[in-house]
Write a structure and sequence with these properties.
alpha+beta; Lipocalin
Length: 282
């Protein structure tokens, strides 16, 4: 009976209501902030950014997957009739080969030649893009960590008779259909290892120049040695950091086979060479 009346084992309803207030009053502000830090439901803005995810741009990849949450079950667009029988429809692959090489250290333009003739999509009888047509494009020189492929887009098509058409940044792919091209990759390990070795040598020199507390040198000499040691350490760390942050150099050889993916319909004409004679335009 005494145990049943004891508040240690069985608390009354009034004691239960008063307990949270007593406990809350006893918690220190430092403890409350510490518990809040371990709250698993805390917002993402209070959590530190993962450097690995930022380096590999994982947030952009997740945004690409979750972009456009449209739940409509019916396509709003209607069937479009062809505007011309001489069309190269989206989804067509144009075989080509690079004329100029690519080096990702600097941005620039790239040229390719069409290696196989392309006919109209509807019948396949009309020659629209003959072999030897020239493609003009650009490549992306901004490399991310671990990237091995060069992205490139094509902005103009020039036919052998010098007639041309502007292209809306058609993507370049490899013969297997993968985005971009992969050939040579230089990770600059020589510069990274050389920077690490130089940083190590500077660190050894800084340690040898460290002041001897037990010596008879004056305070000025000790302060000078300490300043030199700190400066050498900072220089070594900066050299290593800059060498590690060098982006890889991607190179594509001239003549490398590639493909151009048509993502928008091209309206052309049957190819017939146009020959210009002197005085004909006068």
């Amino acid at each position: 009976e005494d145990a049943a009346r004891s508040s240690v084992f069985f608390r009354s309803s009034n004691a239960t209501k008063a307990a949270p207030a007593t406990i809350a009053a006893a918690i220190q502000p430092e403890q409350a902030s510490g518990n809040q830090a371990f709250n698993p439901m805390a917002t993402a803005s209070t959590q530190p950014t993962d450097p690995t995810a930022a380096q590999n741009r994982q947030d952009q990849k997740e945004a690409f997957l979750t972009n456009g949450g449209d739940t409509a079950t019916r396509n709003p667009a209607s069937l479009q009739l062809p505007v011309s029988p001489y069309q190269v429809m989206a989804g067509t692959i144009i075989p080509a080969a690079l004329v100029t090489g690519i080096n990702s250290d600097l941005p620039g333009q790239v040229i390719a030649n069409v290696t196989e003739a392309v006919y109209d999509t509807a019948t396949g009888r009309f020659l629209l893009i003959p072999q030897g047509s020239r493609l003009i494009g650009r490549y992306d020189s901004q490399m991310t960590f671990g990237q091995r492929r060069v992205l490139l887009v094509w902005t103009r098509l020039i036919l052998p008779d010098t007639s041309s058409i502007s292209l809306d940044r058609l993507p370049g792919i490899d013969p297997a259909g993968y985005a971009g091209l992969e050939d040579g990759v230089d990770w600059h390990w020589d510069r990274i290892l050389a920077g690490a070795a130089l940083s190590t040598l500077l660190g050894i020199g800084a340690e040898l120049a460290a002041p001897d507390r037990g010596g008879s040198d004056g305070k000025v000499v000790i302060a000078t040695r300490q300043s030199a040691q700190d400066t050498v350490n900072q220089v070594g760390q900066e050299i290593t950091k800059r060498n590690v942050n060098i982006q890889p150099t991607l190179t594509i050889r001239p003549g490398f086979p590639m493909r151009v993916m048509v993502n928008k319909d091209l309206i052309l004409r049957p190819y017939q060479p146009l020959f210009f004679q002197r005085g004909s335009s006068q």
